[in-house]
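Known limitations

Files may contain more than one protein. Parsers should not assume a single record per file. Below, a two-record file is shown to illustrate correct handling: read the sequence, read the token line, then continue until end of file.
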Amino acid sequence: MTTLAPSKPPAAALVRTPGPAFSRAQSLAGQVADFIVDGIASGAYAFGQRLIETDLARQLDVSRVPIREALKMLEAQGILVVTPHRGAHVAEFDGLKSDRVREARIALERLAIPDALATFQSRPEMLGRMEELLTNMEDAVSRQNWIAAGKADLQFHREICLASGNEIVITLWEALARHITIIFGRELSSEGGNPRLREQHNRVLRLIRKGDLAGLHEELGRHVMRYRRRPEDEKKNGRAANGAGTGERS
């Protein structure tokens, strides 16, 4: 039976041992859900892996009530699949699903940008928060703490949506936030981290300061969609798979 404990120790940011209580700023179930999402993002929990309530409760030093609430929350968001007699398993995030999350994300951020620019121009002190997040990002990258770097990245883009004041955009973006965390975390893992993370976000911040709407639309698209599957890659992969199965050589 597959248990929660991964074959390799999870990243330090994921280790939760008995001690100080979780923060009161968010519900306990929400914090448990975020812990699970961080585990999926870091690769500590594999796609398809079963999560055991008792193991989670012991690891996090909480009762099974918030664990069950967290599992239901993540099931509703499509991050876990729960089936009778089989329990909760991490949902698969294939290329198509990841692309769809990216497309929804970039559409929401592009909707947010015009109003966000107006807010930043009228309240330039808000950009100080963006600078702080870039510093946090750089610090995390220097320590190769890719979970912390990913969280700073997520908050940077959240600030853009919040600055728009568009409650629909904000609500929908938050609904995608955990999916974004997983996809971006797996991207960082696949490339062994991203030492240019701050540089990439510096470009976005410079365009915000300039009020360059067109430039931001282009930069955000490049920034978010850089891992998008390309049809030619899918065809190439399909040919490779067929060749492997039939003994063909390229």
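...continuing to the second record:
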Amino acid sequence: MDALSEILHALKTRHTAVGTLTLSAPWGLRVDDFTAPTVYGMAAGAPCWLQLSGREPIELLPGDVALLSGVERYVLLSSPGVSPAPLGQAWAANGLPEFQAQTEPGTPLHFRWGGGGAGTTLLGLAFGLPGGLRNPLLMALPPLIVWRRAQGGAFPWMRPAIDFLLAKEAQSPGFTATARLMAELVFVSLVRSHLLQAPGETQGWLRGLTDSCIARALQALHADPATDWTVATLAHVAGLSRTVFSTRFSELVGASPIEYLTRWRMHQAADRLSHTRPNLTQLAFELGYTSDAAFRSAFKRHYGVPPSRFGLAAADAASAPVEGDDA
């Protein structure tokens, strides 16, 4: 399994919302409390500006694509200095449904806003991931990734995918299923682009994937979290000595191998608990715990509540990992 496959495995979207934003200058939208990872594709028209809280604005030209992980506030503007309206308020004014982690819109959403001047068309994609901001992929991403149209040679399918997602044929057979696949392809391509261009800026397991030895251990751990992994057995998979492996893993991933194993097991458990009612004893066994009590204790340390009380609201409200876990 290569890095791209790892990303797809971790992405595992609950649902994807696809929409078109038709905007006319002057316009501005402020996003304060929307934590789902979001992609904006600058499709056509006048350039716009994207600004994360406390940072310089970034100009988006036609063909550019931006991925926001949802961890920081941001504004979209027709030009710097425009006073933005809250996105939630503008969204409600358009009569559009609130984004729900468990509900996928059957057709693309169409949003209009602005003062009637120069037009800008954006593709908008929002992804519902299990675990909210605790999702291991989101924890590893920077707040913003920008893909420029000039990079088209590396990902020639990016523009056709965006064009398809902007199509008006929402009622055609198979559109929703194909749109989901296309949206995930755009998402993964943006993450892969970041991995290739700025590996030093990547965090967590994504950064670990940039090292071939650590990547082998991560792939084995992800594929079979129920195995009784130890630092020694993971080091063997990586082809490194125990000491070198442990040091390199911690430096790249930001956690010891066993700490990361626990986090991955807890993410898998939370994903199951967020949309099913599994037998907890069986779930504990499937995740490598020798007793129900050990699993319940690890889960409560990580999420602050026992697994029996962990549901959809708790999963989506989770915003940061608990440090210092052990398997």
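Parsers that stop after the first record will miss the second one. For reference, the second record is described as follows. The mean pLDDT is 85.
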